[in-house]
C-alpha cells in the first residue's frame, strides 16, 4: 500500500516518520521551507495514492492518442505523470508555483489531469470536467479529439493550461530567459537530448541572478544519460526510482544548487529520469469518488506578480525633420521605453554587430540599469539563438535586429511562437507578451525573409516596409501596444530624408497605405511598396510633372492587410473596403506598381484591387552587391517604369525620357 511507505502509527498513537517523509522534510529545509512533519506526510500520502491510481489510466489515454505523430511510450507517459505529481506536491508544500516548459507528447495530458485534481485548472476546465465519475468519463471521451486546434485535453500543451509555456521545438534555447526572478521553471526533455542540452548550456552565459529565475532541466529516456556543459566529468542526478517523493527531493536539490550559485552558473543541475516498463495498476471503481479530497489536501498556490498582460508605457518619439539614419532613431526610442518601464525586463539582440556599435545609447543605459547583465544585451552569429532569447522574454521588452538574409535562421522559432499565440487567441486566451519588433535592414540579395513572413496570418505577423525614420518610430511605438504579434520593420540602409511628418507617419502605420502626391482619382497612378521602390516612384512622378501629366502616388506600407482574409480572425485586421476604394479607385486608367519584392508576391496580396490596367515591376531574382543597384539590375528602375507606363498608354517607349536616358537603358533592357 502507498501509505505504508509514508507513515504509520503505533498502538499508542505516536507518529513514526518514514524515511521518505524525513528525506523530503530535510530537502524542504535546504530551500528555506520548514514544514510540520504531519503536513508533509499527509500531502505525500495523497500524492502517492493518486499517482498509483493514475498509473492504470495513463495507458488507456495513450492508446487513444496513438493516431497522433510520435505519441510516446506508456512508460514515458507514466514518468511524466509522476514528475508533474512531484511538482504539484512541492507547489502545495512550499507555497510557490513551478511552471513547465516542454514539447513532449504526454506532457499536456499529465498537466491537464493533475491541474484538475488539485483545483489549479482554469474555471472553464473545472466546469467542463468536474471531479466526478461523469467528469472523468467526459475527459476520457474527449481526450485527443481535437488534434487540429489542440484546445481540448490531449498529448499537447493546450492554451487553457495554467503555467505551461509555449511548446516549441526550439524551446531549449528560450528556456533560460523564460523564468523571471523569484520564479522556477522545469524544462522537460526527451531521450535524445544531448544536442539540446549542449545548446542550453551555451545560453548559460546570458543568465544572471539580477533578472533571471531558476530553470531545472529534467531528462526522460531509456538511453544513456546525457552529460551537460563543457565539463564532461559532471554527472547528472540519475534516478531509477521515479516515485513522486524521489523526484520531488531531486527538484529541491536542484533548486538549492541554483540558489547557492554566486554570479555565473557554469553548469546545469540536470535531473535524469529512467523510463521503466510501464506497470498497469488496477483502478478500483471507487477511486474517482476520492478525487475531490485532493483539492483541499494538495491545494495549489496562486501565481504572484506576473500580470495577465504586459503593458508598456510608450512615450512620444523624438521625431525627425531632416535627413537621418533609421537605426540611431530606434536606438534612442528603445532606450527611452526601457527607462520609463523599469519593471519590464529588457532584451536587445543584434545579429548585425555588437550592441555597443549599433545601439550605443541603449547599450549604455541598459548596461547601467542591469549592472552589466549579459542577458540584456545580446550579440551572436546564430540568429536562432537571438530570436529565442527575445521570445523567451515574454514578460519584458524586446528588440531584435538582423539582416534580411541572415534573418532566415530566425523563422522557425518566430513562426512556432506566433502559431501558439494564435491558438491562444482562438481560445479567447490572448498571448500575454507584448509585440516583438524584428528590425531588418533591406538586403539587395533577395527579400526571402520578408516574403516568408508575408505568407503568415496578418493578424499575428505584420510586415512593414519602412520609407523613413518617422514611420519607423511610429511603427515601433505601435508594436509595443500590441500583444502576441511579431512585427517586421524592413528599414532602409544609410541616410534617408524625412518624407513624412509625424502625423502622416502615424496615419500610414494605422491605415497600411497613404497617398503621398496628387489625387487618387487621377488617370495615372503610381504605387510604391518599399523604400527603394519609393525613390524610383518619386523620380517617375517628377518626370510626369514636367510633362504635366496628372497622377497620384500611393505608398503601401503593410501589404499583408490588403489581401483577402483567410478566416474571420485575420479579417479583423484587414483594410476596410472603403479605404481601398478611396486609395485605388476603378476609374484609374493606368497603374504602375514598383515593389521591393517579387511581383508575384505583391499581386497575390492585392487581388482585392482592380489590377486589370496595372503593370507590376519588382525583384526578378537578380541579386546585386550594392542595394542601390537592385532596381536597375531587376528591371524595376524609374526608367523601366517610364517605358512600361508609356507603352500601356499607347505612347512611344521614349516619350518621357531624354536620348541619353534612352541609350543608357538599351544594354539591359532586352534582358527583361
What brief labels describe this structure?
single chain; 672 residues; alpha/beta; five-stranded parallel sheet; 20 strands; disordered N terminus
Tell me how many strands there are: 20
Q: What oligomeric state do these chains adopt?
A: single chain
What's the helical proportion of residues? 25-40%
Biggest pleated sheet: 6 strands, parallel
The order of strands across the largest sheet is 10-9-11-12-14-13
> What's the helix count?
25
Distance between the termini: 82 Å
- The radius of gyration computed from the alpha-carbon positions, rounded to a whole number of angstroms, is 30 Å
Low-pLDDT segments = 1-16, 229-234, 280-290
Anisotropy-based shape: elongated
**Structural class, please?**
alpha/beta
Mean pLDDT: 82
Estimate the strand proportion.
Answer: 5-15%
Short description:
The protein has 672 residues and is of the alpha/beta class. 39% of the residues lie in helices and 14% in strands.
Description:
The protein has 25 helices and 20 strands. It has about 675 residues and is of the alpha/beta class. It has a six-stranded parallel beta sheet, sandwiched between helices. Strands 3-4-5-7-6 form a five-stranded parallel beta sheet. Strand 11, helix 15 and strand 12 form a beta-alpha-beta unit.
What's the helix and strand layout?
Blueprint: E1 7-9, E2 15-17, H1 19-30, H2 37-55, H3 58-64, H4 74-94, E3 98-102, H5 107-117, H6 123-128, H7 133-142, E4 184-189, H8 194-202, E5 214-221, E6 237-239, H9 244-260, E7 271-274, H10 291-297, E8 324-325, H11 326-340, E9 346-350, H12 355-358, H13 360-369, E10 377-379, H14 383-392, E11 397-403, H15 411-426, E12 436-441, H16 448-454, E13 461-465, H17 469-479, E14 486-491, E15 495-496, H18 502-511, E16 513-517, E17 524-529, H19 531-546, E18 551-556, H20 568-571, H21 577-583, E19 590-595, H22 599-605, E20 614-617, H23 630-633, H24 638-648, H25 659-669
Parallel strand pairs: 3-4, 4-5, 5-7, 6-7, 9-10, 9-11, 11-12, 12-14, 13-14, 17-18, 17-19, 19-20
Antiparallel strand pairs: 1-2, 8-15, 16-18
Amino acid at each position: 500500500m502507498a501509505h505504508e511507505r509514508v507513515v504509520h502509527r503505533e498502538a499508542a498513537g505516536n507518529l513514526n516518520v518514514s524515511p521518505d517523509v524525513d528525506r523530503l522534510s530535510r530537502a524542504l529545509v535546504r530551500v528555506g521551507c520548514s514544514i510540520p512533519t504531519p503536513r508533509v506526510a499527509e500531502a505525500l500520502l495523497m500524492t502517492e495514492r493518486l499517482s498509483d491510481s493514475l498509473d492504470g489510466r495513463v495507458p488507456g489515454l495513450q492508446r487513444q492518442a496513438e493516431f497522433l505523430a510520435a505519441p510516446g511510450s506508456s512508460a514515458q507517459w507514466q514518468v511524466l505523470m509522476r514528475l508533474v505529481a512531484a511538482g504539484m506536491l512541492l507547489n502545495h508544500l512550499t507555497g510557490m508555483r513551478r511552471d513547465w516548459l516542454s514539447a513532449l507528447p504526454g506532457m499536456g495530458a499529465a498537466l491537464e489531469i493533475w491541474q484538475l485534481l488539485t483545483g489549479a485548472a482554469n474555471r472553464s476546465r473545472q466546469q467542463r470536467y468536474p471531479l466526478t465519475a461523469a467528469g472523468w468519463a467526459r475527459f476520457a471521451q474527449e481526450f485527443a479529439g481535437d488534434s487540429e486546434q489542440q484546445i481540448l485535453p490531449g498529448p499537447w500543451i493546450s492554451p487553457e493550461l495554467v503555467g505551461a509555456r509555449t511548446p516549441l521545438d526550439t524551446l531549449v534555447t528560450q528556456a533560460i530567459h523564460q523564468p523571471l526572478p523569484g520564479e522556477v521553471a522545469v524544462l522537460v526533455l526527451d531521450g535524445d537530448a544531448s544536442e539540446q542540452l549542449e545548446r542550453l548550456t551555451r545560453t548559460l552565459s546570458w543568465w544572471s541572478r539580477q533578472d533571471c529565475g531558476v530553470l531545472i532541466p529534467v531528462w526522460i529516456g531509456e538511453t544513456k544519460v546525457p552529460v551537460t556543459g563543457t565539463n564532461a566529468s559532471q554527472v547528472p542526478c540519475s534516478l531509477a526510482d521515479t516515485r513522486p517523493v524521489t523526484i520531488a527531493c531531486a527538484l529541491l536539490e536542484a533548486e538549492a544548487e541554483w540558489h547557492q550559485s554566486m554570479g555565473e552558473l557554469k553548469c546545469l543541475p540536470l535531473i535524469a529520469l529512467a523510463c521503466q516498463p510501464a506497470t498497469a495498476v488496477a483502478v478500483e471503481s471507487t477511486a474517482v469518488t476520492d478525487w475531490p479530497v485532493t483539492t483541499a489536501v494538495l491545494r495549489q498556490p496562486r501565481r504572484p506578480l506576473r500580470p495577465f498582460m504586459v503593458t508598456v508605457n510608450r512615450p512620444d518619439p523624438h521625431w525627425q525633420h531632416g535627413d537621418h539614419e533609421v537605426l540611431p532613431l530606434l536606438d534612442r526610442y528603445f532606450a527611452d521605453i526601457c527607462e520609463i518601464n523599469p519593471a519590464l525586463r529588457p532584451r536587445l539582440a543584434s545579429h548585425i554587430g555588437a550592441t555597443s556599435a549599433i545601439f550605443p545609447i541603449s547599450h549604455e543605459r541598459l548596461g547601467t540599469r542591469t549592472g552589466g547583465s549579459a542577458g540584456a544585451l545580446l550579440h551572436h552569429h546564430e540568429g536562432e539563438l537571438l530570436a529565442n532569447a527575445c521570445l523567451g522574454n515574454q514578460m519584458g521588452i524586446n528588440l531584435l535586429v538582423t539582416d534580411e538574409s541572415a534573418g532566415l535562421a530566425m523563422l522557425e522559432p518566430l513562426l512556432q511562437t506566433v502559431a501558439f499565440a494564435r491558438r491562444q487567441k482562438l481560445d479567447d486566451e490572448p498571448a500575454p507578451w507584448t509585440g516583438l519588433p524584428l528590425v531588418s535592414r533591406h538586403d539587395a540579395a533577395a527579400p526571402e525573409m520578408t516574403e516568408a513572413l508575408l505568407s503568415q496570418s496578418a493578424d499575428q505577423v505584420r510586415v512593414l516596409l519602412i520609407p523613413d525614420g518617422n514611420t519607423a518610430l511610429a511603427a515601433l511605438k505601435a508594436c509595443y501596444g500590441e500583444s502576441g504579434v511579431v512585427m517586421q520593420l524592413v528599414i532602409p540602409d544609410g541616410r534617408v530624408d524625412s518624407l513624412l511628418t509625424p502625423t502622416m507617419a502615424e496615419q500610414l502605420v494605422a491605415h497600411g497605405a497613404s497617398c503621398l502626391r496628387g489625387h487618387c482619382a487621377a488617370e495615372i497612378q503610381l504605387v510604391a511598396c518599399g523604400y527603394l521602390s519609393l525613390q524610383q516612384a518619386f523620380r517617375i512622378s517628377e518626370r510626369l510633372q514636367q510633362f504635366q501629366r496628372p497622377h497620384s502616388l500611393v505608398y503601401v506600407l503593410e501589404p499583408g492587410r490588403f489581401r483577402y482574409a483567410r478566416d474571420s480572425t485575420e479579417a479583423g485586421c484587414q483594410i476596410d473596403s472603403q479605404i481601398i476604394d478611396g486609395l485605388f479607385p476603378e476609374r484609374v486608367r493606368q497603374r504602375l506598381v514598383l515593389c521591393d519584392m517579387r511581383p508575384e508576391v505583391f499581386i497575390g496580396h492585392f487581388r482585392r484591387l482592380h489590377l486589370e490596367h496595372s503593370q507590376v515591376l519588382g525583384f526578378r531574382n537578380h541579386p546585386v552587391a550594392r542595394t542601390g543597384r537592385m532596381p536597375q539590375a531587376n528591371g524595376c528602375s524609374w526608367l523601366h517604369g517610364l517605358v512600361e507606363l508609356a507603352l500601356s498608354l499607347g505612347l512611344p517607349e521614349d516619350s518621357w525620357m531624354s536620348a541619353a536616358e534612352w541609350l543608357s537603358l538599351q544594354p539591359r533592357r532586352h534582358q527583361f
